Amino acid sequence: MNTDWSDHVQGINTLYTSRKLRFNDLFKERYLPIFNLPKDQPLRILEIGCGPGALAQALKRWYPQAEIVGIDRDTAFIEYARGHVPGVCFLEGDATQLPFADGTFDVTISNTVSEHIEPKAFYGEQMRVLKPDGICIVISGRRGYHHMAPCLDENEYEQAFWKKVQQHDHSMETYHVCQYPLNEMEHPKAMAAHGFRNITTGYALVDLTPDDPKYSKEMALDMIESGRGNDLDAVHSALKSLPEHISREEAEKMTAMINEKYDRRISLYLAGEKQWNTYVSIALIVRGTK
Ligand SMILES: C[S@@+](CC[C@H](N)C(=O)[O-])C[C@H]1O[C@@H](n2cnc3c(N)ncnc32)[C@H](O)[C@@H]1O
User: Fold this and answer.
1) If you measure from the C-alpha of residue 259 to the centroid of ligand 1, how many angstroms do you get, rounded to a whole number?
2) Fewer CB atoms near the end CB (10 Å): N or C, the chain?
3) pTM score, two decimals?
4) Is 260 exposed, middle or buried (0-12, 13-18, 19+ CB in 10 A)?
């Protein structure tokens, strides 16, 4: 049982809800031309580091004929994905020792995973399990914009809580988070250096602005709830990671404050009082052929 990532780095709510928005069908055409997958054959697709399964879920909608497998080493993510994403096979396992024979898949894909895994092992294993002419797709988050709604500003208690967490939390080093970051030029070079050819790059931009009327009420509320889930997960992680610094009472007080703020954000949205907070994410998509 390994729940290092879900307990100490990013929780299920954070990953599932944010990715469900980014891979919403509204944005499908921003991804598919860059993925550029063959349309005339049933594909076997492996998602590496699938987390709680939101990308695999989108892939199942976008390529209904495909056989999709997701693998991640976090037990809680895999259990969640199995319960929420029908039609996809989810396995607990290590991307550096994939439990598949050589030449099993037509496509390997990953989202915000490459930066956490040593590149030789990351690419080497994908190269091994891909069929000849198989396609490797690496999606990597780039710096976007994030403007919070004014009604979600942190009060003094919250600021002091997060400052204390920042001072004591070493989860990023402990769990080897983002040990292998690459910039926009280094990414395609790394894929080529590990033997892939015909490399292309593309960018998919997603803007999440709940007050923009182009989004349905349901999607706007999902955007707001995603923020709530992210903040509540961060409190949960702080309590799990720093039991000697964060008390249960402090975590409960933070939880109540966060819920109160987000309830107010929803009331303002429903009353038509616009905040115009926005989250713009930019994904670099690198594609190569074995
Ligand atoms: C930033 S999260 C992204 C999760 C998912 N791709 C998403 O976008 O929601 C990174 C994921 O990589 C997984 N991971 C990191 N190293 C791994 C490894 N060696 N083998 C399998 N999974 C790994 C973590 O458990 C985590 O779920």
Assistant:
1) 28
2) N
3) 0.96
4) exposed
